[in-house]
Structures are given as structure tokens and as C-alpha cells.
Amino acid sequence: MLSSADFLFYFLGLVSLVFGLGVVLFRNPIYSALCLVITMISVAGIFGTLDAWFIAGVQLIVYAGAVTVLFVMVLMLFDLKHEMKTFSKGVIGNGVKLAASGVLLGMLGTYIWATYATEPTFKPLPAAATSSIKATKDLATSLFTTYIFSFEVIGILLLVIAVGAVTLSRITGGTHHAD
Amino acid sequence: MGKDVFEIVVNCVKMLLIFLVMVQLVPILVWLERRVSAFMQNRFGPNRVGPLGLIQLLADAVKFLFKEPFFPEKGMAVMYYGAPIMALIPGALALAAIPLGAPFHLEQFTWLGREWGPYDFIMQGYDFGVGIVIVLGVSSLGAYSLLMAGWGSSNKYSLLGALRASAQMVSYELALGLSLVGILMVFNTFSFYDIIAQQTGMPLTFNFFGKVHSIAWLPNWGIFFNPLGALIFFCASFAETNRLPFDLPEAEGELVAGFHTEYGGFALLMFYIGEYGHMMVASALMATFYFGGYTIPYVANESVANWVSSGGLATHPNWAAFLTSLIFFLVFLLKVFLFLLIYIWVRWTLPRFRYDQLMDLGWKTMLPWALFNTVLTAVWLAFSHRPV
Amino acid sequence: MSALLAFLIFVGILAGFGAFLIILSSSLGPRPKPNPAKNMPYESGVAGTETAESRVSVKFYLTAILFIIFDIEIIFMYPWALSFMDFVKSGQGMYILGAMGIFIFLFVVGLIWEVKSKALDWNR
Taking a C-beta distance cutoff of 8 angstroms, is the pair B332, B287 a contact? Predict the structure, then answer.
């Protein structure tokens, strides 16, 4: 008999897989984006089955509530028929597509090959981390002590992204006519 | 396994009850809105159907059901019909995460010829332990309903309205999220019940540079610890719910009716249910974080329980516990209604912003002030921490 | 775990309830013959000149991407707010204040840059 935790894991995993496939297989990009939303939400649910509720909430806020909203809004900006034509022709375009999928496949293959034979090294959860609040506090403690340098670097990285996004939005040309 | 199934059923029933409360409050709110606006504009408002016009909305709902179904010619069916369904979900889920009353304990009792063990009920649909983070995450999904409606209707005005609405929602989500950081720092927890528990108790006690002060005639509410945060949160919640003075998505002079231009009948009503649901969530969060949740100022929680059990209202301890929780629920509902009244009051008082003013207010005024509030609270707490 | 399962079941019930309402209302109403004028996108009575495919301003995109960046920065403040008092009580108040101080300084620099570069000005 399946326990409810097992059932949830398999159910959410199946949902995220099916809709992840939907992201790739739908011809219409707006449906792909909506599938991506459901994939993100089910990944948040999987974090929930691991009792990482803070991470689940962050997954909902940042990925489902912000990043994918950006995708959907971007799709509204484009003239989709024009974009589709531009991106589905040309030797260079096809070459870039092949190269990109080759790199991704290679990375995935290498990862599977490198970790296939080794035993998984899960650290057992500390016994104290029972409640979600306690787990989040542990996360905060290690974030602000052990990983403080990475944390500040993220601040700089986000600043660079903000500057870069504004600069890029000023550029006209490419598939966009300056209007 | 049996215990699991029982828990799942109880949780589902609780969430359904909360959803039904939300859906039932919507007609009352619409009626209230129309009556209050009529009062403010020296009119009568709906007063013919039933006493005080209270049944007007029931009549409207029945009329909505029998409207002609309309589907735009070039629209996309999945998104056009999915959008109103999606409008219901985030509000209901967020409301189910907020405690609506004090938790209560039931002793063992016999019912239907079976022993039912002692239970502890929380007046909350679900509690994952991180309270506010889940609420923010769930309600951030509300933008999809608008985007789907705008995209599926295949109408220029719907699309523009949806884009405006979602850009506005995300802009004010920043100020909304940041304004809560201060109060979370004060209470040191994410859990709603802990936050409410810290706001019970009468004299307002705080530590000011190492000296403990207390003001006897003020309750221990969050608003006294973080007034600026409360103000920013309340203002941002107006924009989150797309209410006047921030109802740019449906600025009828510019966009016909915004993202729901092509909708009619019950689908339109579902968008309204979603909007009022978001208003209830914002009001409930306001009451929980800044106004003591379900607690009654000047009255200790225990004295309510004593009053119920000694006043002869309920003889059995189970009924007494249930009644006590019900009283707290009504108090919470009263607080929520006060904030909803402020929403209605503001709607019929202030004119609409221009879009650039709206964006300026969100990004250049409210976000820096929310940041200032955070820094101020942090410095205050670091130099004089609050006694618990 | 049962809380999460109940949560998912509730989402299913909500979606089912919404779909039921939509189906109910669309099966009860009258269905007159399709009318080309009525099926046109509604534009206050005049015939439409533009379709919904016409492109919209890039400012919406810029707003969304800046929102993501600041949203991530704000998310980092939540665990900080949660554990702030613990650090203060263990005598590390200045440390935790400084750690977030640098981060907030970068946040403010970003915000000032956005304002100065007029990326947030809607009437540019």
C-alpha cells in the first residue's frame, strides 16, 4: 500500500514530467508557458513533500509567480508569427539549435555517467530540524555565517543583472523593427 | 492509513467551509458596496428586492446564470474558460491559510454509536508552518488569471488591460513583500498563530534603548511596533486587488473594461469573486499582522472561555470550546469587515491614478519607504530588543 | 504529508467547482444565431482596426524583469528577518546588521541606478 508521502511524490513527479514535456511539445508558446507554470508549482509541491516549506514558498513566489509571469508577458510582446518564421529558417539557426541541444545532452550524459556507479551520499536530516520554522532558521544561520560571501556576491550579481537588463532593452534591431 | 484518511477529510472539509464563507461573503460585500456608495452619493441604492435590498444579489446571480454564453470568434477556449476558474483558486487558497479563530480542543465523545477520540482543531484550512510565505506564494499566482483572460479573449483592450494589471500587480508585490519584513523581524516567526499569540496580552510593552516602557491603555498590537509598514502594506494591497484608486486595468474611459471586456454572465461574476477574495485575504492579513488577529482587545482569551462555560451558554465542555472559538471567529470577521469597509470608502472617495503616477508611486515612493522601514526596524531591534 | 494531500484535493475541488459553474451557465443560457457584428472584438461599437496581435511597449517587459531582480532580493530578507533576533540575542547583532547592510546597500544602488537611468519612467 502506498503511503500518502510516496503517493504525493510519484503524483507530483508525474505531473511535473508530463507538463515539462508539454513545455517542449506544444507548438503554441503560450501553452508552453502555462505548462511551465504547472511544472513549477508541482516542483514546489515536491519541495513540500521533503518538508522544505520555505523553499516551496520561494519556488512559488520566485519561479511560478515572477519568472513565468515574465515569460508570459514577453510572449505578449512579440509578434509570434514573425518570430517563429525568423527562428525556424537558416543553416546558422539550425546549427545553433543542434549545438545547444548537443551541449545539454552532453552535460546530462556526463552527469549520469559520473554519478551512476557511486553510492548516493545523503546527509541525514539533523534531528532538531523538525518544524518548518526551525528548518528555515537553520537555513538562515548557514546562509548568513558559512555562505555569507556567496550571499553578498549574489547581491552584486543581481545589481549587474539589473543594469544589464536596462541596457539591453535600449538596443533596437535584430528581429525587432525600431518603431 | 485510517488516521491519514480522516485527517485529509477533515482538512478538506475545513478548506471547503472557508471557501464557502468566502463565496457567501461576496454577495454581502457587493450589496454593502452598492449601499455604501449610494449613501455617500446621496442615493438609495438597491432597496427593492427583499429587506433593504439584500436579496438583490441573489436575483443578479440567477440572472447571470441565464445569460447567453458568449465566446469571442478568434479566442482560445482553454484560456478563455480557464481564466475565471483560475481567478477563484489563489484567493481561496490564501484565505484557507489564515487562522480565522482560536484553536480548540474536543474531549472524547460518543456520536453515532462510536467513540470519537480527543481532537485538537485549528481554525485554519492548512498549516505548513511557514504561514505568510505560502500565502504570498499562492496569491502571486493571481496574475495568471488576468494574463489568461487577456490573451484568450483576442481583444486589444483585454490584452492591454491584462498587461497593465499584471505589471501593476508585480510592481506592488515588491512593496507588499518588503513591508512585511519589518513586522516579521519584530515577531521573529512566520507562523500566524505565533504572531497572534505574541499580540495578546494587554499593556503595550516595548523596549526603548534598554529601558522597558509600557502603555497601559494600548493593546499589544503589531501596528504600534511597525506603523509605517502597516501603512505601506495597506496601500499596496489596494493595488494588488486592483481596486480604486489603482483600478487602471479596468479604466473604463481608456480600456472599455480591461481584461474582462469579452466576459459576461457567470464568468464575469467569478472574476468578481476572485477580486473580493483577494480583498478579504488582504484585510485578514492586515488584521492578523497589525491588529491582533482574532483576539479581543481589553479582554483576555481565558475570560471569554470562562464567560462561555460559566454563563450557562453551553453545558458540555466540547460545546463550550466550540462556542468560544466561534466567538473569536466572529471577532475576526468583524475586524476583516472594518478593513473591507475602508476599501469601499476609499473606492468612492479617491479618483483614479494615471498609469505613470501609479508606477512612480510603486517604484519610487513605496519601495524606498518600505526599505527604510526595514532598516529602521532592524536598527531599532539591534540596539534595543523587544522583551518577549 | 496529509496536509499537502488535502491541499491538492482542495485545489482539484476548486477547479471542478469553477468548471461546473462555467458549464452550468453556458448550458442554461439562450443560444441565438451567431452574428458577425457581435462576434467581433468589442471596441465600443466601432469596427476594430487592430488585432490583439499588435505589439505592446517594451516597458512592460522591463518592469517584469526588474520585478524579478528585486523580488529575489526581498526573498533573501525573509530568512534574515526570521533569524534576526536570534543573532541579536547571541550578541551578533552588529554582524547580522552589517551582512544585510551591504546587501541593502547594493539593493539601493540598483534602485537609484534604475531611477537615474529613467528605466522606471513611464513617459519616456
Answer: yes
Q: Which of B130, B143, B163 sits opposite A136 (nearest CB)?
A: B130
Segments forming the whole domain that contains residue C72: 2-116
Note if the bond before B245 is cis, omega within 30 degrees: yes
How far does B307 lie from chain C, in Å, by closest CA? 34
Give the start-to-end residue ranges of the domains of chain B: 66-383
Residue C123 lies in a domain: no
- Asked if residue A107 has pLDDT above 80, the reply is yes
Interface subset of B 60-119, CB within 8 angstroms of C: 64-70, 72-74, 81, 84-86, 88-89, 92-93, 96
* Alpha-carbon dihedral sign for residues B311, B312, B317, B319: negative
pLDDT bin (cut points 50, 70, 90) of residue C56 is: low
Cα-Cα-Cα-Cα dihedral sign, residues C38, C42, C47, C52: negative
Q: Which domain CATH number covers C70? A: 1.20.58.1610
- Cα dist from B341 to B30, B32, B45, whole Å: 11, 8, 16
Q: Residues B49-67: what's their mean pLDDT?
A: 81
CA distance B185 to C82: 6
Interface pTM, i.e. ipTM: 0.85
Q: Could you report the per-residue pLDDT of B208-249, keeping only the tens digit for each?
A: 666 777 777 788 888 888 899 999 999 999 888 877 777 766
Which pLDDT score, from 0 to 100, does residue C55 have? 59
Residues 6+ apart with CB under 8 A from A137: C79, C82, C83, C86
Angle formed at CA B158 by CA B154 and CA B160, multiple of 5 degrees: 110
Say which residues have a Cβ less than 8 Å from residue B17's Cβ, sequence separation at least 6: none
| Residue reference for cell 491584462 | B162
Burial classification of residue A61, based on how many CB atoms lie within 10 Å of its CB (0-12 exposed, 13-18 middle, 19 or more buried): buried
Residue B120 confidence class, pLDDT cut points 50, 70, 90: confident
For the cut 70, the answer to whether the pLDDT of residue B387 exceeds it is no
pLDDT tens-digit readout, A114-173: 877 676 666 555 554 467 788 888 888 888 888 889 999 999 999 998 888 888 877 765
Integer distance in angstroms from the first to the last C-alpha of chain B? 40
Which residues of chain A make contact with C69, given a CB cutoff of 8 A?
158, 161-162, 165
What pLDDT was estimated at residue C60? 76
- Domain count of the fold of chain C: 1
Cell numbers representing residue A64 in the block:
511560478
Alpha helices in A50-117 (DSSP H): 53-58, 68-77, 80-87, 91-116
Contact flag B190-A58 (C-beta cutoff 8 Å): no
Q: Has residue C124 been placed in a domain?
A: no
Q: Is the CB of A61 less than 8 angstroms away from the CB of B190? A: no
pLDDT at position B249 is 67
- Residue B184 main-chain phi, psi, to 5 deg: -65, -35
Looking at residue C49, its pLDDT comes to 59
Interface mutation vs chain B, best among C11, C21, C76, most B CBs within 10 Å: C21
Find out whether A41 and A64 touch, Cβ atoms under 8 Å: yes
> What single DSSP character describes residue A176?
B
Taking the mean position of all CA atoms in its chain, how far away is CA B214?
31
